[in-house]
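Handoff note, outgoing to incoming analyst
You'll be picking up this chain. Sequence as last confirmed:
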Amino acid sequence: MKLATIRLADGHTAAVRVDGDTLVHLGATDVGALLAQPEWRSRAEAVTGTTSYAAADATFATLVPAPSKVVCVGLNYKTHIQEMGRDLPEYPTLFSKFADCLIGPTDDIQRPAETTEFDWEVELAVVIGATVRRATTEQAEAAIAGFTVLNDITCRDWQFRTREWLQGKNWDSSTPVGPYLVTPDELPGGVRPAVAVRCEVDGEVVQSDTTGDLLFDPVHLVEYVSTMVRLNPGDIIATGTPGGVGHARKPPRYLTGGEVIVTEIEGVGRLVNRVVNEVAS
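Most recent structure output, in case you need it:
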């Protein structure tokens, strides 16, 4: 099953089920609100005869507009760890993003005036569908509602001002997410999907790998993060990016404005976003 959040003509949003070229209204304002409902999956599967929309005419919003938390994993693909000159970590490297960073799958990425080192990072993201704390492996598997695509755009110059990465990762309207939540049964490998990940900048492939290179898989990450903090329906865990980021190139390559970035994950979806230079007010 594929789910999405679309923008309506009246300025509101709606959670929909994707049935081919048709989007079926599920009676919730967004995918996060849907996942918070008891038995959300059976409810979503059972809806028929309600308002529907043509997929070709729809504008997709960010998948979960207001998650209680977005947890991101750094240094989780072996290729990316090596290109950044790091040793393989013993534990996941975690940081967070704020909901104000999140944008839709075709929205413009706002490049802030304060950075000269703006970088791309295609990532498979886990979407949580049940409340869990200190999850066992079985509980972690059951808590994964599905997967989506996230581009963890980063201001490298701000990221490396300190040993903590938060300030490099949390810029307003910079992080596209979507367009779909794809449930695990739709993907090879299920809750540990074996899929290709890819990023293009102006038609040039800059990242290409598979999730088989992940050091810590999605189930392990749900177990690990939920040990610290409760995970709620609609929460997002971004699982990290493969090699090929601009910062690690020789010489480094950064986004300067005007580029079109396509981030795509096999069987999950694709984001197509233009980088625009934000005017600081």
